[in-house]
Design a protein that fits this description.
It comes from Lactuca saligna (Willowleaf lettuce). By secondary structure, the chain is mainly α. It contains ten helices and no strands. α3 (38-48) runs antiparallel to α10 (202-213) and α5 (87-94) runs antiparallel to α6. The chain is globular and about 55 Å long.
Length: 221
């Protein structure tokens, strides 16, 4: 009996030591990719907001009332339940394992639907420079290849996922960083306060704000 307990304790210790962890930089990249809608979301916010002013105000004010509280709740609950599973584990003891399953399933379903957009958006950007990606005989195999590659990465070691997501985040941000530097001489501050209330699409505007600044709870898993 004593030997069995000791072996179980040793096994638990080994499991805890062997559990892979994300370091700080991959964790930051992961949160960025989970939360930020990226430049595409910003462009849509400006369009639905009838100019730059509402979009700028939204990205300054909205995080105070939504993003920061959501991030703090995530941090508090993740430290209260330091186990793999995140929000699924939070729901189960508070309500019932059935509702914990519902939370996990619908979050997963939401992620599948949301993540299906990004390879398409990537090719939509790419086809502006390489028009052949607008042709179905090239577009469909490319989308399948991207999806299979990213799915394969998720089945590999967590360190590989972390390294890959840093590369993907850098790859995504680099062109916009370069364009941002090149556009410095063309900055016109008076454009920042443009607002046409007749063109404001409130539903689209708030949807874009949520999309760009939501999902902090995903960091818990």
């Amino acid at each position: 009996m004593t030997m069995t307990i000791l072996r179980n304790d040793q096994k638990n210790t080994i499991d805890k030591k062997s559990t892979p962890k994300l370091t700080l930089l991959p964790l930051i990249a992961l949160i960025l990719c989970e939360v930020s809608g990226g430049p595409f979301g910003v462009e849509d916010s400006v369009k639905s907001g009838g100019g730059a002013l509402l979009s700028l105000l939204g990205f300054l004010i909205f995080p105070i009332f939504w993003s920061i509280p959501e991030a703090l709740i995530t941090a508090e609950l993740a430290t209260s339940f330091p186990e793999n599973g995140g929000y699924v584990i939070w729901i189960s003891p508070a309500f019932d394992p059935f509702w914990g399953f519902q939370e996990g399933f619908w979050k997963w379903f939401s992620g599948v639907m949301d993540n299906a957009l990004y390879p398409v958006l990537f090719l939509d950007y790419l086809k502006q420079s390489i028009p052949i990606f607008d042709q179905l005989y090239v577009r469909i195999p490319t989308l399948l290849a991207i999806t299979i590659l990213l799915t394969r990465l998720n089945y590999r070691d967590l360190h590989i996922v972390g390294f890959s997501i840093v590369l993907l985040a850098s790859f995504s941000l680099l062109p916009f960083a370069v364009r941002g530097i090149l556009s410095i001489p063309k900055i016109r501050p008076k454009r920042w306060i443009t607002l046409d209330f007749k063109k404001v699409q409130w539903r689209g505007y708030f949807n874009n704000m949520f999309w760009n600044l939501n999902y902090w709870d995903k960091a818990s898993t």
